[in-house]
Amino acid sequence: MEKDAMGGHVMLPLESLSLDLPNGGIVLGHDKDVSTLQDEISGMRSRQGHLNRRRREALDKLIDLKGSIRVFCRVRPSISTSNLKTKSPVTIEQEKIAVRAVGGKKDFSVDRVFDQESTQDDVFHEVKPILRSALDGHNVCILAFGQTGTGKTYTMEGTNDNLGVVPRAIEELFSHASQDSSSTYSFSISMLEVYMGSLRDLLAPKQHLSRSTECHTMCNLSILATKSGAVEVEGLTDVAMPDIKKANQWYCRGRRSRSTSWTNVNNVSSRSHCLTRITIRRSGGVTEEVSKLWLVDLGGSERLLKTGASGLTMDEGKAINLSLSALGDVIAALRRKKSHVPYRNSKLTQILSDSLGDGSKVLMVVHISPSKDDVGETICSLGFAKRARLIESCREISEDLKMLKHKRLLELDKEICDAEQELQDLNKKIRSAEVSLEERKKVSPSICHALSDEKGSPRSTLVVGHIDAADSPQANEKAKSRVSHGSVPHFMSPTECSRQRHGIASHSVSRPRLTKSVNRYPAELSGSQSFSHSSCKNASKARSAVFSSGLSKLKYLSVKSDQINISSNSIDSTAASVPRRRESFVSRPVQRVPLHQHKRRMSCLT
Ligand SMILES: Nc1ncnc2c1ncn2[C@@H]1O[C@H](COP(=O)(O)OP(=O)(O)OP(=O)(O)O)[C@@H](O)[C@H]1O
Q: Is the pTM of this model over 0.80?
């Protein structure tokens, strides 16, 4: 290697030029000129598209074969020390759960059982494939269902040491987006609470929550549906998640807003359903797909006779049970492929209606307690699960068919793994080739020309400005841009664990959850409104497109400065000009409660 007088350029004999790129893959050889590299990249891109299609088709088949509505059951570990001595009435065999009760043993089947020793990792491992479906453009709904205190919030939110499904899902989305060089993804988040039939925006800017008239509005958001079936909650805050850090900040903020409410209402349980919606926008070339990932922590409730609930507590219990019952009806109708699905019977099912039906993937995790004292509620919860998978459990398939199905599932699984492995390798090669190409383009054409004997003849020397591929601004830019973007139904009652918590809570002077809520809007969480609409190109994406246009009405916040700034000025005019045909659901909420009243009543209880 020698230095010449040409602006400090490094002269390299081309034969010896071989870059050991950190990503492996393409080696910059003397025979690879710009056009060769471009051809190679375009060849690899078309192979990438082919593999992506193959992987998506295999995943769709796999999920269809497993069932687009899947029901898992998770058994919470025994918490009470006295219970450790008594034998649990719940026994588990593979996909079956047996519960010993007074009337005899009852058996239930689910798609997968997580026993008391199961970890958050085990649960997330089973959730992962369905997230891939969301990234592929399907609407996905993951629901945590069960009796109060059985671990719904633990599964969905988790703890700092044991993250739950939602934070892991966020991480997975970003991780996938950074690896997939064939598409560009952008994510946004909304969080809302369904309380007594009213909707509450958990990410609404602070100033909105402090004024009673605004509060009233934020608690009575309307649900809009288009003729094509897309559903939107009008006025619901939708915040851009530019990176994983901001995503987690917004998610934590939503959680804190929720905790405050339900902690004030009741120290023991969440008295509402908490819905987190992640909107995924995926663009590859000229098309854009929009899909929704709903992560729902359903409310648990008490049984009146067991808890002596009255007044507001009883109303809340009724509201939760009624909406859970409506959800059960919807899932059962979908399982039976009925022509009429009763979405309109509750706000919860209205909101989720475009993510529970055709083309969507649903995963319900039913939570149960291992305690003997909760056996009645355990049977109720498993009865709900059974109803959800009614068709499957009624139609027992033969052993031969089971084996065939298992074999096919393994084949599809392998097909997906192979395609993913090849895609990963290909992504690395494409990145390396792109870096090489940029390096080539930087080389001054005149010097190159001077070094060439004549056009087309092999060159013996190449002038390279710098050869550190990892430092290439283009490479960095590319890497950055990849992630740019009557009576209470005896449904459930508190578990022994929650009753213990109640005992502790009622004797406790301090209220840690309430304290947590003070200053719950950190200054760095802020944004200005922005939204751009890209029309979808074909009929199969029409639903996504309508949903996308519906979003233009939303307060779509992006995190940019230290101020939350909402204005309607930046709403894309293209989106505004898209004709929107909407119809409002006419079903009545179980009971409408203005937020100011809701809050006052909550504070009365403190
Ligand atoms: N699998 C588990 N492993 C360890 N601890 C768990 C598990 N499941 C639940 N717990 C613990 O049990 C307690 C109750 O769980 P959690 O609050 O998640 O119940 P829940 O069903 O969400 O209740 P609610 O309906 O009142 O919201 C918590 O202290 C939680 O940490």
A: no
